Request: fold
Amino acid sequence: MAYTIAEKPEEAAAFAKETDVNENPELRAAFDGKVAAEGKVEPRDWMPVKYRKTLVRQISQHAHSEYVGMLPEGNWVTRAPSLRRKAVLLSKIQDEAGHALYLYSAVETLGVSRDELLDALHEGRAKYSSIFNYPTLTWADIAAIGWLVDGAAIVNQVSLQRCSYGPYSRAMVRICKEESFHQRQGYEAMMVMAQGSPAQKKLAQDALNRWWWPSLMMFGPSDKDSPNSAQSMAWRIKRDSNDDLRQRFVDMTVPQADYLGLTMPDPDLKWNEETGHYDFGDIDWEEFWRVVNGNGICNRERLSARQKAWDEGAWVRDAAMAHAEKKRARQAQRAAAE
Ligand code: BYC
Reply:
């Protein structure tokens, strides 16, 4: 379906104005009070229909991102340059699968089944992070993903640890611990390449050139073009704006690139003494929307890889269900005999 930014603010305004059918003012006041007091909303608490919808939207997109995010890295498992690198990459990818599981479970607490979520992904109806639609051409791309992509993810997710929805916020605490290891191993791998032979340094610089701008796009559209931010921040689902988080990432990452002796691919990047932040060049929002709308370099490949894995895993799911059924029948038989 075509998506235009211009349509979105209207949709968002209509969404915020709608009131829940049969909304009870006392329950609503209790919910608002809890959110204002930094309390956590739990699955069995009453919540506005739109709060639930927003959580399902954001957390499911996040889960799909972790799930699809295994693919660009999976591309290098058989070609990692050493046994150590291979073992680290394998466990990092397993961590991403674990993150997807925590997040799909968090969505299930909101009353949506995992099958529904995966159907939406496989049929191309669900969004996942734009970043995973770029190819991993060289080993340096794997290092750059750890350093930049996981680095950007941490900045976003540290903020989400304070999300008002309990299960999401708790999932974020655990995920952040693992992401921080991912970021460090990526930076270490990048350092080895940046300080290696001229050919290795060239690969490192090339990976930085290709991953820098897509990493900035991970934070989403500018605040002025972000239809969901205002309501999500009012409900304390999001705690910082897209632009604030993006700026935090830039400020954190530029000195790291300097330390590596690499050059940021942005001629407009410079320290601003007055603001105490780095100024940076314009993001190519056309590219961003193209990728978000399914027309990035790897969108089709990613979805067909996920669909194939799902189809080929059918016998495993069937076997697990048959085993669970047998176990249940055996237990019932034993209970009847006692
Ligand atoms: N890509 O109103 P906005 C990882 C969509 S995985 C695609 O600002 P919101 C890792 C947005 O969904 C980490 N779509 O939205 C894994 C919305 O569309 P709908 C992934 C994007 O939700 C493996 C529309 O654009 N992290 O770390 O307020 C290996 C308008 O945007 C993107 C998360 O998912 C994008 N980049 O804010 C290595 C974090 N940006 O739904 C690493 C959780 C925006 O209205 N998510 N859109 O049709 C969030 O924090 C927020 O959802 C966002 C967007 C900041 C991403």
